[in-house]
Amino acid sequence: MQLTEIFRLVWINITENKWKVMLTSLGIIVGAATIVLVIAIGRGGQMDVEDQFKNLNAGAIDITYQQSGGGMSGGGLGGGMMMPMAGGGGGAPTGSRGGAMAGGMPGGFGMNTENITLTQDDVDDILLFVPDVSQATITATAEKGVTGGDLEEEANYTIAGVKPEYLEMSNLSLAIGDFITEEDDTNCEKVAVIGYSLAEEIFGSVMEAYDSVIYIDGRSYVINGVLQQMGNMSAGINPDDAIFIPYDTAIKYVMGRDVSPQITVIAEDVSEVPQVMENIQTVLGETYKNATFTLTDAGSKMEAATQSADTLSMLLFSVASIVFIVGGIGIMNVLFVSVQERTTEIGILKALGSSRRDILLEFLIEANMISTIGGILGVIASAALLPVVEYFGMRVEPSFTGGVMALLFAIFTGTVFGFYPAYKAASLIPIEALNHE
């Protein structure tokens, strides 16, 4: 029998049993749609991770300190402005350069009342004594009342005291104006750089915000620049919604004794990060005896977030595989029934000279066509489901690859689960098939 005749027989059987074919392919439809959604959600999760950490350098190390007596020291950028990994380890400090005793007593007795405060001197020590460090900076944040622009009443926003090198280290860029300069920091100038979203919220637009005045704790600051929009960060503060001022200005006018700095260090080589962290602990240990600092690296956070996204994708992919197996079993069952119903037809075809190969191909092609139809319908259904998934707050990134993979899985399922019924049909003895009732 010619291949065209086999296809014609298959097509006739499918068109005459439309509803049966539709119900048979239902599992494949669901499986194909799930595959497309899984790939879209997986890509969306990966892009979310990239977006959330796009302002981080993989070699970044955050250094914070938590007062063992319960007072938090080392908030830095709020656990997420530039390097969103703030945390705490505890320690009983014994010495403090730049620190202050709660009761005015000198350090050196291991008392929990001592308040250790990281300073620019510590940054200089790290740059001088720790090998394989390319950059380092100190930052601090606080929530303060802000007025100005279109604000009808005072509102609390995150104020970040930063050094000039912060812009480059955090991979930020300006939409307009200039960032904080060394002169601004040295002279404690009252200038500010604000986030993109904040500029639109307070002033209506980026252009209106530039060179305008805002009031932080009642003091006026001229806006020298507005940052490019960054989008949501992984945790903590979002640069889009923060106000940046010179670090020394922040210490003098905004934070005072309540300052909780964070030092961020960039390792020259990502592979050297563990050794750099160990060396930083050693250098800081020489200055602050018996104090324990918390060091966290951006690379491990990014890796953990990526692994979480990959785990979710694998979980969803497993669900899709189970759905495909169920759909394949459905195809196999229907084909077994079809073989029983068409035993006489098979006997006639064999009597007319059709070979076992012809019968095998007929039923195998039929299984493939059912699964292919299901795959195509599943891909179409997924296009309608993607907006629904987005509505529930999950990011999806559809791709052509997802549609192709869904179709390939559908065809593979039809081939695997359709083979045995096709083999059984091809194995029927003609005389027994013709006598079948």
Explain what you see.
The protein has two domains: 3-51 and 304-434, no CATH class; 66-292, no CATH class. The chain has 15 helices and twelve strands. The protein has helices at 3-15, 18-24, 26-52, 120-129, 166-169, 182-186, 196-203, 206-209, 247-255, 273-287, 298-341, 343-351, 356-391, 400-426, 430-434; strands at 60-64, 100-101, 114-115, 133-148, 155-162, 174-177, 191-194, 213-216, 219-227, 242-246, 262-267, 294-297. The strands form two sheets. The protein has a six-stranded mixed β-barrel with strand order 4-5-10-7-9-8. A two-stranded antiparallel sheet has the order 2-3. Strand 4 and strand 5 form a beta hairpin.
In short:
The chain has 437 residues and is α+β, with helices and mostly antiparallel strands. The chain has 15 helices and 12 strands. The strands form 2 sheets. The chain has a 6-stranded mixed barrel with strand order 4-5-10-7-9-8. A two-stranded antiparallel ribbon has the order 2-3.
- Helicity, as a percent range: 40-55%
**Strand tally:** 12
Largest sheet: 6 strands, mixed, barrel
Radius of gyration: 33 Å
Give the CA-based shape.
Answer: elongated
Q: What's the number of helices?
A: 15
Task: Enumerate the strands of the largest sheet in spatial order, edge to edge or round the barrel.
Answer: 4-5-10-7-9-8
Beginning-to-end CA distance, first to last residue = 25 Å
Runs in which pLDDT lies below 50 for 5 or more consecutive residues are 69-96, 98-113
Average pLDDT confidence is 77
Strand content: 15-25%
Structural classification: alpha+beta
**How many discrete structural domains?**
2
Taken in chain order, the helices and strands follow as HHHEEEHEEHEHEHHEEEHEHEHHHHH
